[in-house]
């Protein structure tokens, strides 16, 4: 896996743990990048019902 893909996986795992997904870190680590993205999409949809309508822009707050 590319370095960027691994960084994205770590970022998604961190975000999912913040939102207290009912999975442990070990369980999240076994998921593929696509599966993690789908889990995060569910969290976004659950946390705000209009998140898929484009009314909210989710941004990356990580500073470089």
Key traits:
mainly alpha; 56% helix; globular; 64 residues; 3 helices
Task: Compose a concise summary of this entry.
With 64 residues, the chain is mainly α. It is built from three helices and no strands. The relative contact order is 0.14.
Structural write-up:
By secondary structure, the chain is mostly helical. It contains three helices and no strands. It has helices at 3-18, 25-29, 33-47. Helix 1 (3-18) packs parallel to helix 3 (33-47). The protein is globular and about 30 Å long. It starts with a helix and ends in a 17-residue tail after the last helix. The model has no long low-confidence stretch (mean pLDDT 78).
Query: How many strand segments?
Result: 0
Helix content: 55-70%
Query: What count of helical segments does DSSP give?
Result: 3
Cα-based radius of gyration, to the nearest Å: 12 Å
Largest sheet: none
Supply the helix-strand structural class.
mainly alpha
Strand content: under 5%
Order of helices and strands: HHH
Spans of at least 5 consecutive residues whose pLDDT stays below 50 are none
Q: Overall pLDDT, averaged?
A: 78
Which overall shape is indicated by the principal axes computed on the Cα atoms?
globular
């Amino acid at each position: 896996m590319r370095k960027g893909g691994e960084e994205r996986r770590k970022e998604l795992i961190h975000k999912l743990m913040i939102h207290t997904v009912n999975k442990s870190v070990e369980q999240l680590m076994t998921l593929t990048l696509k599966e993690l993205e789908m889990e995060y999409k569910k969290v976004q949809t659950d946390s705000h019902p209009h998140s898929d309508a484009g009314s909210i822009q989710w941004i990356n707050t990580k500073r470089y």
